[in-house]
Amino acid sequence: MIKLFKFVAIAEGISYLILFFNMLVIKPQNLTLYKTLLFPVGMSHGLLFMGYVLLAFIIRNNQKWSFKELLIVQLASLLPFATFYVEKKYVRNA
Q1: Where do the structural domains in the chain lie, given as residue ranges?
Q2: Residue 72: closest CA among 94, 58, 91
Q3: Would residue 92 be called left, alpha or beta, if left means φ above 0 and alpha means ψ between -120 and 50 degrees?
Q4: pLDDT tens-digit readout, 22-70
Q5: pTM for this prediction
Q6: C-beta of residue 89 within 8 angstroms of C-beta of residue 73
Q7: How far apart are CA 52 and CA 37, in angstroms?
């Protein structure tokens, strides 16, 4: 389960960055490409986000996270690059 969380954390971080790239770089240049990419990228990011949050709650006891650590892990899903940090610092035993 921890390996799955590590994979989802990295994939969620990458999808978040791709979503920002689509919004900030592609949209001003090519509106048609932006609209084409918006649904698949947004949907995949949404599913990975929900998986990240759910898996964090599931592996909380296994990782022996305090409430503060769980809160940090959950807040990391809202910040770009933060899931990469969580994957390195807070996920052990994988």
Answers
A1: 2-89
A2: 91
A3: beta
A4: 999 999 999 999 999 999 999 999 999 999 999 999 999 888 889 999 9
A5: 0.86
A6: no
A7: 22
